[in-house]
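A quick aside before the break. I want you to see a complete sequence-to-structure record at least once, exactly as it would be stored in a machine-readable document. Don't worry about memorizing anything.
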Amino acid sequence: MVGEEIAALGLEVRCGAKGGKGMLDSIRSRLAREEGQALVEYALIVSLVAIVTVSVLSLIGTNLVDIFNGAAGSL
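That is the input. The structure line, written in tokens, reads:
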């Protein structure tokens, strides 16, 4: 009944988007693309560098404060 009304308006009813391409095909093609992989890899590298930097600075941070205080005291 609804299909007849849509046809009477001159509209076309299709299953799936993009010329009949199904949702599963759309998901498969999206997963097959490798455009975002490089971005994810760079984000992982940056986060690893940030974690290492924060860890190293927290370990030697107290020693740096002592060194700077000694240098400031000698001035």
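Two observations worth writing down. Residues 35-75 form one domain. The mean pLDDT is 76. We'll return to this after the break.
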